[in-house]
């Protein structure tokens, strides 16, 4: 039997192909548990895609975003946030279920450097959440869509997003519960979230995103 000697690069490529695991469909997605998962098609975020989160001041958009981070860190993913205002705190993240040891926050990124910072984070972690700066150019956003797709990372854009996205979540306010006829303690709140995407429900409700006592 004749032996054929392959160049080193071919040997490495062949070995990599043999060692590469078979990626099942569910392994190419990030699972979402609980009430939020019930709203999202398949209860998963597709890796290599962009999800947007929007909502006015006090609408609960931050709570929705933190629930996505919590789902990722609970699943063992490293995550990072680009916090333009510098207001995202560890206490709120921890109370939302985020595993803080797997969550890094980059604060007050200059708008001129925003795309570069987000692109670098997409290279290194499983999920990146980023406040979208005012005036983000569509071309820069499209390049980040391509970067997320290439790296298999989930990008969660918080704010108006001028490019394609697989899923859109919009927080539309909440109702606190627990008071009875003007007396009692606030127990939890129902947060109304509009969901748009392939196969998505038009509207749903996520319960117990925050607690007070």
How are the SSEs placed, and which strands pair?
Elements (H helix, E strand, L loop, with lengths): L7 H12 L9 E3 L2 H6 L4 E3 L3 E5 L6 H14 L4 E5 L6 H6 L7 E5 L6 H9 L4 E5 L6 H14 L2 E5 L8 E14 L2 E15 L5 E9 L2
Parallel strand pairs: 3-7, 3-8, 4-5, 4-6, 6-7
Antiparallel strand pairs: 1-2, 8-9, 9-10
Helix pairs in contact: 5-6
Question: Which terms summarize this structure?
Answer:
single chain; 213 residues; alpha/beta; Rossmann fold; eight-stranded mixed sheet; two-stranded antiparallel sheet; 29% helix; disordered N terminus; disordered C terminus
Can you describe what's shown?
The protein has 213 residues and is α/β, with parallel strands linked by helices. The chain has a domain at 27-33 and 46-173: Rossmann fold, CATH 3.40.50.300. It is 29% helix and 32% strand. It contains six helices and ten strands; from the N terminus they run αβαββαβαβαβαββββ. The strands form two sheets. An eight-stranded mixed sheet has the order 5-4-6-7-3-8-9-10, with helices on both faces. Strands 1-2 form a two-stranded antiparallel sheet. Helix 6 (138-151) links the parallel strand 6 and strand 7 (154-158). The N and C termini lie far apart (78 Å).
**Extended strand count:** 10
The CATH architecture of the domain at 27-33 and 46-173 is 3-Layer(aba) Sandwich
The CATH class label of the domain at 27-33 and 46-173 is: Alpha Beta
Radius of gyration, in angstroms, nearest whole number: 20 Å
Measured distance between first and last alpha carbons: 78 Å
Task: State the oligomer.
Answer: single chain
Query: Major sheet: size, sense and barrel closure?
Result: 8 strands, mixed
């Amino acid at each position: 039997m004749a032996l054929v000697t392959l160049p080193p690069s071919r040997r490495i490529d062949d070995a990599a192909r043999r060692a590469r695991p078979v990626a099942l469909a569910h392994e190419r997605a990030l699972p979402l548990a609980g009430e939020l998962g019930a709203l999202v098609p398949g209860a998963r975020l597709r890796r290599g895609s962009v999800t947007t989160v929007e909502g006015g001041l006090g609408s609960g958009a931050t709570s929705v975003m933190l629930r996505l981070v919590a789902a990722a860190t609970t699943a063992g993913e490293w995550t990072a946030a680009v916090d333009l205002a510098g207001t995202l705190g560890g206490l709120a993240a921890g109370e939302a279920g985020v595993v803080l040891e797997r969550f890094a926050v980059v604060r007050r990124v200059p708008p001129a450097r925003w795309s570069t910072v987000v692109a670098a984070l997409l290279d290194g972690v499983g999920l990146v959440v980023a406040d979208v700066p005012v005036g983000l150019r569509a071309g820069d956003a499209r390049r980040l869509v391509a970067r997320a797709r290439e790296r298999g990372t989930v990008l969660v854009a918080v704010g108006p997003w001028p490019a394609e996205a697989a899923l859109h979540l919009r927080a539309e306010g909440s109702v606190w519960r627990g008071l009875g006829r003007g007396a009692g303690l606030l127990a939890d709140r129902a947060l109304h979230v509009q969901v748009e995407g392939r196969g998505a429900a038009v509207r749903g409700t996520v319960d117990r995103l925050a607690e007070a006592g």
